[in-house]
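Write out the 3D structure for:
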Amino acid sequence: MSFIIFTNHYQLLHFLFFLIITITPSSLAQSQHNQFCVAGIGYGESTCGTSSSSSSNKLLIKGGTVVNAHHQQIADVYVEDGIIVAVNPTIAVGDDVYVIDATGKFVMPGGIDPHTHLEMEFMNTVAVDDFFSGQAAALAGGTTMHIDFVIPTNGSLTAGFEAYEKKAKKSCMDYGFHMAITKWDETVSREMELMVKEKGINSFKFFMAYKGSLMISDELLLEGFKKCKSLGALAMVHAENGDAVYEGQKKMIELGITGPEGHALSRPAVLEGEATARAIRLADFVNTPLYVVHVMSIDAMEEVAKARKSGQRVIGEPVLSGLALDDSWLWHPDFDTAAKYVMSPPIRKQGHDKALQAALSTGVLQLVGTDHCVFNSTQKAFGIDDFRKIPNGVNGIEERMRVVWDIMVESGQISVTDYVRLTSTECARIFNIYPKKGAILPGSDADIIILNPNSSFDITAKSHHSRVDTNVYEGRKGKGKIEVTVAGGRVVWENNELKVVPGSGRYIQMAPFSYLFDGIDKKDAAYLNSLQAPVKRAKSTA
C-alpha cells in the first residue's frame, strides 16, 4: 500500500493554505482536519495527504455500468461539491473536471456497513482500530459510511454519546450512531428521547448476552421495546441466551477446555436460536419492528424466516465472517491463529455459512454487516489460559465489499443489483437515509465505488489498512476488486493509493420512523378491535 507523504514543512503549509481557500461541503470539519494534519495523526506510513483528484469539487465518471438496487444502465455520473448532479448516457464537461474512465466496470453506491465497533472499550481493553484507521480501511475496501455503536458511560446515554463524539473527531468518512441500552430507569427513558429528537439516533441495541456487563433482562427488553416503538426508533438485539452461555462457559472450564475452541462449545447455535425467538416474540407482543444483528446460525436464521413469513417486521443481518468462514479455525493448534477467530456469537460449523448465503439470496436476510471489532495478538493473548478472557471480535470493514462480491455474485447466487441492495441501499432505507445514501441518483451524496469484475484481489494482514496485525480472511483470493472509492465527492482510493484526511468525516443524523414503521398503528388498531373486551356484565345483586 502507498500513501501521500509530506517531505518538508513547506509542502504541508502549502497544502493547508490550499485547503483553506477551497472549502467545500465535503470538508465541513476543516479546523479539525488542520489540527490532525499538523499533529501528524495517521498510522503506518501515512500522515495527512490529498491530491488534485481528491480535492477537486468536480468529477466525471465516464462510460461505466451504473448500478442501483433495482436498475442498471451504461451512463456517465457527474459530481459537483460532493453531490451527484447528473446521471446520463453522455455528459460533456470542461477542462476543470477530473475524469475517470469506468468503461467495462461497475459504478455503484459506496457500501454502508451497519455494524461496527471502532475504538470500543471491551473486556478490559480497547479495539485497536479508531475512527481514522478503521474508516481508512473501509474506504480502501469500498465502504463509504458505517454506523457504529455508542456504549453508554456508566449507563448514561448522554455521557456515552459525548465520549463517542470525541472519538469520531478524527473520522475521515461519513458515519452514524446506534445506541446501546445497558440499564433501565426514567433517566435512560428520557435520554432515549433526547437521542432521537436532538442527536440523530434512530436505533437502540439490547444485549441479551455478556452476563455481568452489557446483558439486560427480559423486563428491561420489554421496557426498551415499548420506548423504541413510541419514538419510532428501531430496536436491535444481540441474541444469545446470556445465562445459558455463562453456564456453558463454566462447564467447559470444568472439563479442562480452556482454549479458543471452548468459546464455540460454550455458546452453541441453540442458544442463539432461543434468544432470537424470544426477542422476536417479545417484539411481536409490543408490535414494534426488530433488527437482529449478526445472525450467525441456521437456528437464528430460521426464527427470522418464520417471523417474516407470518408478516412480522423483522430484519436479519448476517455478518461477513458468518457468510465466509467456519469454526474449524478455532481448533487450530496455534493459539494466536485460533484466537483471532473468537467473536460472539461464534463463527459456526461448516454448513451454517452456506445456509446464511442462501437466506441472503432469497430475501430471508436483508443486508450484510461486519461487526468489525479488532484486537491484536497481544490483546487476544489475554485469554491464553482461559478463553473467557479472549477479547471478542474480528475484522471485516475493509474486506466486506470484495468478499461478498466473490462469494455471492461470482457464484451466481445474487445479481449485481442485489449486491447493491445488500451492501448499501437496504441499510440506507432501514436507517432512513435513503436516497441521500445508498443510491447513484441526482441529489444523492457522491459516495461511489468503481468495481472491476475482471480484476482479482488477495487479502493479507501485511497489505490491509487496519491497525490489527492479523486477518481472519488471510490468503483469500477472488474476483471483484474495488479500484476507485469516492467519498463525499473526493477520490480517496485510486491506483491502490489511499488519500485520507483525519477530521474530514461527517456525522450523519438519522431520522426516526423509517419504512419499517409503516402500518404499525393500523395493526395496533386492528388488535384493539379484535379483543371483544372488556365484556359488559350485569352487576350482581347478591
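The radius of gyration is 24 Å.
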